[in-house]
Design brief:
Elements lengths: L7 H8 L4 H14 L4 E5 L10 H17 L3 E2 L6 H10 L4 H15 L5 E4 L7 H13 L2 E4 L15 E3 L8 E12 L2 E7 L9 E2 L2 E3 L6 H13 L9 E9 L4 E10 L13 E7 L1 H4 L8 H9 L3
Parallel strand pairs: 1-2, 1-3, 3-4, 6-11
Antiparallel strand pairs: 5-10, 6-7, 6-9, 7-8, 7-12, 10-11
């Protein structure tokens, strides 16, 4: 019936559903047909978020479309919205928990959903918070749209981040950065007020010096900023991006460096005031260096 692997029979069955368990039966049919891995968008719908059901559904629709155009295999819950509302009005009192227990819980426990993408302001929704806890319980990967994302692919922000080189790109320098990972979180540093982008949080990062390779540069920068020593070969190169600030363009490397336990940090106080380890959701709530939210999304917003 459509590009998300629904058939006319699926829609006919959905139209006849009378319970949340019936809806799960239809969902399982579609999920079994989807290529793997399967992702799903979660976030505010009936409560929280943009403040209305209509606006929340519109944002979810744009998120589903964006993921689909980027090659993700999306299980969309949007076709279930009409039967959800119909079943809701046929029940009283405990509908919310019935929906979670009889539809979403078996959906997640089926093992057919590999990752959940959470919309901005997901914490304002009881249902989305419940989904996040279920994902943690079941080991489903959780990913997050950047804070403030309004459904636009390019909102015209002053800082733009690109996977491919674009017209009139004239880089002034080349930057390396690293996500130091431990316990499902990564290290961010808070910049001194007198530094460029002062008062914001960002990864350990710096310019490549003459004669250095990117791996050598990030090894040096990490040691200088945090006291963490790691050989160049220990870093995994994750992204090579093309970044435009209003004043200049530059090339940007993102590395990851995992640790089994959090490494000791000897912070360079000339550069930064403090540090901490954050998960993706908490990091998106911080005042980040311009473009940092896009880097977090590109590194962790992928199954």
């Amino acid at each position: 019936m459509d590009r998300f692997h629904w058939t006319k029979e699926d829609l006919a069955l959905l139209a006849r559903t009378e319970t949340c368990a019936d809806m799960f039966t239809v969902a399982k049919r579609v999920l079994n047909r989807l290529p793997k891995p399967v992702v799903q968008v979660c976030g505010p719908i009936s409560t929280g978020g943009a403040g209305s059901l209509k606006k929340n559904l519109a944002l979810m629709d744009r998120a589903v479309e964006l993921l689909h155009t980027h090659g993700r295999h999306v299980f969309s819950q949007l076709p279930f919205e009409e039967p959800m509302q119909r079943i809701k009005y046929a029940h009283q009192g405990s509908y919310a928990m019935t929906l979670l227990d009889d539809f979403y819980k078996p959906l997640f426990e089926s093992g057919l959903v590999d990752a959940l993408y959470f919309l901005p302001a997901w914490q304002s929704s009881f249902g989305a918070r419940w989904e996040y806890e279920q994902a943690k319980r079941l080991g489903i990967k959780t990913l997050f749209f950047p804070k403030g994302w309004d459904g636009e692919v390019d909102s015209g922000a002053a800082v733009t981040v690109h996977h491919n080189i674009f017209p009139a790109f004239r880089p002034k320098f080349e930057i390396v950065s690293v996500f130091v990972e431990a316990d499902g979180k990564f290290l961010l540093l808070h910049r001194q007020d007198h530094k460029p982008q002062g008062g914001t949080w960002g990864m350990p990062a710096g310019k490549i010096e003459k004669g250095e390779t990117p791996h050598e540069a990030i090894s040096r920068e990490l040691r200088e900023e945090t006291g963490i020593s790691a050989a160049p070969a220990d870093f995994t190169h994750r992204e090579f991006l093309f970044v435009r600030y209003p004043e200049y363009d530059f090339m940007y490397h993102i590395f990851t460096l995992p640790f089994a336990v959090r490494p000791a940090v000897d912070l360079n106080l000339n550069e930064h005031t403090r540090f901490d380890f954050f998960d993706v959701a908490a990091a998106q709530e911080l005042p980040l260096i311009p473009g940092e939210d896009a880097c977090i999304a590109r590194t962790y917003l992928a199954p």
